[in-house]
Amino acid sequence: MSIKREFFRDPEKGKIAGVCAGIADYFGWELWLVRIIFVSGTLLTGGFFPMAYIIGWFILDKKPSAHAAPTAKPTTKAKGKGWVSSAADDVKVEVKSKIWQAGEPPKQAFRDINSSFSKLENRLRKVETYVTSSEYQLNREINRL
Fold first, then answer.
1. pLDDT < 50: residue spans in the chain
2. pTM for the full model?
3. What is the DSSP string of 27-56?
4. 114: how many CB neighbours lie within 10 A of its CB?
5. φ, ψ for residue 76 (rounded to 5)?
């Protein structure tokens, strides 16, 4: 199953117009590698790479910002209980197996995943504490009336 990706320039991550950042994002490479290839190509071929960069600057659309279109994900809240579930808690960790791939090294990815599970464990403990408390039982009895 192939994933359809679109080619955008990313001025938020880029230095000038974000063409190299868009190439890195499209192919899943590290940004520094694409920049090194661009500079090397510019020095070796003369004017082809800068001309291609300028053409890409005008032809490619800007990457849509992530905060412009929030995902419609329901949130669960319990006021004053200390636990909240939101879309901000969902973190995708991409592990790279080769140095030129985009993503995190395995050790850092493990730390991030471990941190996420620790946060989830604490939230679960708070929920269990509330559900087993007498306050919850009292609220439940009041709601039955």
1. 1, 69-80, 83
2. 0.50
3. HTB-HHHHHHHHHHHHHHHSSHHHHHHHHH
4. 10
5. -110, 125
Instruction: Count the domains in the chain.
Output: 2
83 Cβ contact list (under 8 Å, min separation 6): 123, 126, 127, 130
Q: Is residue 127 part of a domain?
A: yes
Residue with tokens 């636990």: 83
pLDDT, residue 27, reads 87
Same domain, 84 and 35: no
48 shares its domain with 89 = no
Work out whether the CA dihedral 28, 39, 8, 72 comes out positive or negative. positive
Q: How many CB atoms lie within 10 A of CB 99?
A: 9
